Amino acid sequence: MKIVKATSKDDEVLTSITKKSKAFWGYSAEQILKWNDSLTVSKEYIETYNVFKLITEDTIIGYYSYFNIEKDTIKLDNLFILPEHIGKGFGKLLMNDFLNKLEKSETKKVQLHADPNAENFYLKLGFKKVGEFETTIKNRFMPIMELDM
Length: 149
Hints:
The protein is an alpha+beta fold. Helix content is 34%, strand content 35%.
């Protein structure tokens, strides 16, 4: 098992992981299709931002991505695992890798927008909910979360 920088050739695999992981939480195929643009990981995205993939037995099973939103603030933009690997510690493994990378930087704060189903995962890792916003689904709110480094 290893975590390495993704390449632009990983775009289709990472997009597939994102959509399958999102669907795991009970979102309909129609809703996943509506979110197609925001769930697509393009070659350009991978080339522009920090994207790291988790590989086990030569298969990519998850990834995370992040970027600076201010000099000392990072946004964790994505963290997805294939559904058959959810709940087995791989999300925490990716998060620890991400946080370890930030320890060597000037980062003071991490922000993210959590899927409502993943809010408890982030709370257990020390994040705090600092707000929320309504999504395209009526009465569904996306938690805004932060972690002080």
